[in-house]
Design goal:
Blueprint lengths: L15 H10 L22 H6 L4 E15 L8 E15 L11 E7 L20 H7 L5 E4 L2 E2 L7 E3 L10 E3 L5 E5 L2 E2 L10 H6 L17
Parallel strand pairs: 3-7
Antiparallel strand pairs: 1-2, 1-4, 1-6, 2-3, 4-8, 5-7, 8-9
Length: about 220
């Protein structure tokens, strides 16, 4: 159960020094995006602009952290379907992302599937828990990671919400991403998307959409 006041806690402000420290700690490595990957059939966007043209919201920001998302029913007698929420503090509202009531405090709450549950035969299936927990996602994509996201407000769940997860601030709504809907990079290592973007980092660097002010995806340094 979430502790009192969790939903209203202020988001951490990440300074330039914080980001530089984070980069130095991960120097020479990559983020583990395996927990966020999934298979999908979809029309591939040929460029960031092509993807942005069909989206109402495009933003750059910094991962603020992770929290438990809703769990919904699956099929009769089956396990629950769990989700985690990545909090992204919007720092560059490129398109349709500024001062939105569903992103209070310029914070986006983006949903990801939490993955498979662990079979626990003595218990009913609806009590089985996910193999990966919130801390696993925090370790994979830590707070301070810079990202570009193409989110939208998630439609209502078609299945029954059994556990709403950690509460959101007043007015906040859960958002979802399309395939190719997020990307990040640390130093000279390209990181993943959902699934990996077909664009080269040179394409992202030249892109007017993805080359956000103060952050050049093709030129990361620790200075």
């Amino acid at each position: 159960m979430a502790q009192q006041g969790e939903a209203d806690r202020p988001a951490k402000e990440w300074t330039r020094a914080d980001v530089q420290k984070y980069r130095s700690e991960l120097a020479g490595g990559v983020l583990d995006v395996s927990l966020l990957r999934k298979n999908a059939d979809y029309p591939v966007a040929s460029s960031p602009e092509a993807l942005a043209a069909g989206r109402q919201t495009v933003a750059g920001g910094i991962v603020d952290g992770w929290q438990q998302g809703p769990a919904t029913a699956s099929y009769p007698g089956g396990p629950l379907e769990y989700r985690v929420i990545m909090r992204v503090r919007i720092t560059d509202p490129v398109k349709g992302a500024a001062n939105k009531p569903y992103m209070p405090g310029n914070m986006a709450y983006i949903e990801f599937d939490q993955g498979a549950v662990i079979r626990d035969a003595p218990k009913p299936a609806e009590e089985w828990k996910p193999e990966k927990n919130v801390s696993d996602f925090e370790a994979s994509i830590p707070a301070g990671t810079k990202v570009v996201v193409f989110p939208r407000v998630r439609p209502p769940y078609s299945a029954k919400v059994v556990d709403p997860g950690e509460p959101l601030p007043a007015g906040a709504q859960i958002m979802s991403l399309p395939p190719q809907g997020w990307c990040s990079k640390i130093r000279n290592w390209p990181l993943g998307a959902t699934p990996s973007p077909p664009h080269s980092w040179e394409d992202w660097n030249r892109s007017k959409t993805a080359a956000l002010p103060g952050w050049n995806p093709g030129r990361q340094t620790n200075s």
